[in-house]
Amino acid sequence: MMNTRILLATCLSVAVACSRQAEPYGPVPTPAQMEWQQMEMNMFVHFGPNTFSGLEWGTGLEPEDLFRPTELDCRQWARTAKAAGMKGIIVTAKHHDGFCLWPNPASQHCVKDVDVLKELSDACREEGLKFGVYISPWDRNDPTYGTPEYNQKYVETLQSVHNGTYGPIFEHWFDGACGEGPTGKRQEYDWPLFHSTVASLQPDAIQFSDVGPGCRWVGNENGHAGETNWSTLNADGYTPGLGAPPTKSLTEGDEDGTAWIPAEADVSIRPGWFWRSSEDNQIKSVEELMDIYLASVGRNAVLLLNVPADTRGKIPTADSLRLMEFRACRDSVFARNLAGRISHRQNTWTAKVKSPFSMVVLQEDIRLGQRIRSFKIEADTDGGWKEIAQGTTVGYKRILRVPETTARRIRITVTDAKATPILSGVKIF
Ligand code: FUL
């Protein structure tokens, strides 16, 4: 009887402890958002009439035959992205000039004898990459832009891309930009209709915009998330574009945000988004790319790195080489985890460590919600425990570059959290 009671009590307390631990706190990612977050780094490819005109924002008046790549090779894009360590490619299927890189039944302003989306989606599948699309709502070519009719055309455009012709689409980019100016056309976008169209055809597609619902713009085009970066956002009452949340919320999220809308940091490897020969010598250095990586992936965001295709329809050799150097650099920095077995007591995690080290990588189990508000990192050096870094949020991944440190042990203490903190990873490099 006694044993049974003890057994029962033990079972109960374990169950309580486990269920308490496993209880999610606040908003949590959907399985598709979780998968998306784990991709960490994707390639953006800007390609279209602007590649041939040298403009960043085409006028929409470009003749269709301006777009004439001489050696279009989407397999080369996919091989390059894969070798660079990217997990997916997002292409500008339609930029602001309205030109469609696929034969869009809802538009006359399209490619004539090639379907770039077909080539690229096939290439991505062959290389094991995911395929995504950017389809600009702002359209400088469509004569109906500025009238309710345009919303219907845009929906037909979405349908023709998301109807399965190009397989599963992992991310849909709703760009909020519109440069019409005070005397320009004003379009009342039917955002709920746009979002529900994509959701009904591709339920797992992460919908990017200033307010999600899948992921949010990070509020700048430098590839930098905030040092504090919550994956939660208060999106109610805001819309993409002019009605976007304040930049601080985009960059840092909202600690008390009611929806899980994590940040995506987009940036170009060149000064412009589209290729132009005059920028061939301005490709970002490996140091710049590493800084971007640490400020995006290292701050709980997904990095979307733009590498534009040239007039041949290929990723230029110089950009591709830089991507390989960037990969080699990451591989060497993160080659070997120097942390030994980790012991955990309350809000503190301690590990033996091989020295010297200069990077600390922390991860929270975000399936249970983002909880950590602040933490500190200490090293057990010859002079005793010494604080080497402190930070605010962790989220899916936080990478801290610390002064090169020689120590016997390392200790991470969560100094403030919304609920019991759960670190799922502590690695030292
Ligand atoms: C912006 C656009 O206006 C740029 O041309 C570029 O496509 C960038 C990624 O988004 O809003």
Number of helices: 10
Low-confidence stretches: 1-20
Cross-sheet strand order for the largest sheet: 1-2-3-4-5-6-9-10
Q: What is the CATH fold-level name of the largest domain? A: TIM Barrel
Radius of gyration: 24 Å
**Whole-number total of structural domains:** 2
Order of helices and strands: HHEHHEHEHEHEEEHEEHEHEEEEEEEE
Hetero groups: beta-L-fucopyranose
The fourth-level CATH homologous superfamily of the largest domain is Glycosidases
User: Could you tell me the number of beta strands?
Assistant: 18
- Estimate percent helicity: 25-40%
The CATH class label of the largest domain is: Alpha Beta
Mean pLDDT: 95
Largest β sheet strand count, sense and barrel closure: 8 strands, parallel, barrel
**Which structural category do the helix and sheet elements fall into?**
alpha/beta
| Beta-strand percent range | 15-25%
Q: Which CATH architecture of the largest domain? A: Alpha-Beta Barrel
**First and last CA, distance:** 53 Å
Large-scale geometry = globular
